[in-house]
Amino acid sequence: MNTPHDPVREQNRRFFQETVARIARQAGFEERLFEKEDKQRLVLEEQFHDQWAASVNVHSIDVIKTNEAATAPEMRYIRKRLGDIRGKKLLDVGCGLGEASVYFALQGADVTAMDISQGMLDATLCLAAANAVAVHPHKSAAEHTRLPEDTKFDVIYAGNLLHHVDIEKTVTLLKPHLAPGGVMVTWDPLAYNPVINLYRIIATKVRTPDEHPFKWKDIRLFRQHFNIVETRYFWLTTLIIFVIMAIFQRRDPNRERFWKAVVEESDRWRWVHAPLQAADKLLLKLIPPLRLLCWNVVIVARDR
Q1: What is the Cα 44 distance to its own chain's centre?
Q2: CATH number of the domain residue 125 falls in
Q3: Alpha-carbon gap, residue 166 to 176, rounded angstroms
């Protein structure tokens, strides 16, 4: 028999977890909270992303196109939901090469770019300079933020990040850094589409082995931490583009990151993406369970 949801008990549990974490940080014990295998995983993540950063010519990145392309529906939706961010303090968790950090800075936000990889942070600073904006680098794993306790942000953004980490631990650590009225925005891949799962089996050289795409329980987790949670799902029939890339164009998923290529080549794919995106919207409206077969989910979470 399922136990009824008790909001008071859940609130007390979250308060206890956050209090213990805060006391541990103040006492200097936070490092000890990591298991040995967690530390090894983080080292591998850092090395992987350092190598990735070293392989990219940052000056070739078109920040506006990367975030506003037709084939970047997640970021276009997020930008619309965030509204005017001029003057707002924004934390980009797992900033990667800095495409989102720099884009948000161009929109007027005061951006802190956080990443486990120094190579990625260096790339982000280089990209910011190339676009005549400034961001504040902060080297840290998402599960060990190293942020001062009183640091608050109006927006915490985690793009394609949480499926690399302990989701509940990371959300629990990040939420206290939300300013009153602040919003946490994330997007990550889902676990259920067989086409994408086949891609994951093949594309081992452009992915880290600890990835764990979101399951339904991971989405529900946000409702345990926030009063208001909105979700939007992307890429269902539009995934045909990746099939074309792999089968008809014979492109090697271990030599290029398809999810990056489809944005860089957005003009080339517009003819197929636009009608299929319209079909996706209709299908997901008529048959909501199909949303779990999409590639990505965007989560917008806040308290009242």
Answers
A1: 19
A2: 3.40.50.150
A3: 17
Domain of 72 in residue numbering reads as: 34-302
Output the pTM of the full model.
0.85
- Token reading at 226: 């926030």
Q: Does 10 reside within a domain?
A: no
The percent helix, strand, coil of the chain (3-state, each to 5) is: 55, 15, 30
User: Distance (Å, rounded) from C-alpha 176 to C-alpha 288?
Assistant: 33
Residue 146: C-alpha distances to residues 138, 173, 297 (Å) = 9, 10, 28
In a domain, 24, yes or no: no
CB 122 within 8 A of CB 98: no
- Residue at 198 is within a domain: yes
Residue 183 structure tokens: 């919003």
* pLDDT digit string, tens, across residues 128-143: 999 999 999 999 988 8
Amino acid at 59: H
* In a domain? residue 298: yes
Angle at which helix 216-225 crosses helix 7-27, to 10 degrees, equals 80
**Quick check: 214 and 164 in contact, CB under 8 A?**
no
| Contacts for 173 with CB less than 8 Å, ≥ 6 apart | 21, 142, 143, 144, 145
Per-residue pLDDT tens digits for 94-140: 999 999 999 999 999 999 999 999 999 999 999 999 999 999 999 99
Question: Closest by alpha carbon to 170, among 137, 144, 207, 134?
Answer: 144
